[in-house]
Amino acid sequence: MIDQLLKQLEQITKDFLDHSVDLEFEEVERFVGERQELVDKIVAEGASIALNSNQKKALAEILKEDKPILSRMYQLRDDASDWLERNNQIKRQQIAYQNNYAADSYFFDKKN
Prior knowledge:
The protein is mostly helical. The protein has one domain (2-96). Helices cover 76% and strands 0% of the residues. The protein has helices spanning 2-19, 25-48, 53-63, 66-97. The protein is rod-shaped and about 85 Å long.
C-alpha cells in the first residue's frame, strides 16, 4: 500500500515539475491538495508499519523536489502581489483624477 502511495506521489510530483512553468494558481493549488492527501495517507500507513529502506529512499528522493515546488509557489505569490499592487495604484490614480466636487458648487481661491 505504501509503495503504491509513494509511486503516486512520485508521479504527481514529476508531472508537476515537468509542467510547473505553465501551471496557473488553481492548478498548483489542486496539486498541493492532492499531494497533501497522499502524504497524509503515507503518514497514516507509516504509523502502523515502519518504512523499509527502499521506501525511505523513495520518500527522500521525492522530498528533494520540494525546493522547485516552493519556488514556483513563491513565484505565483509574488506575481499576485505585483498584480494587486498595480491594481491598487491604478485605483489611486483614477480616484485622484475623478471629479470630487458638486457641479453646482463654487470654488474660492484665496491669494495671500
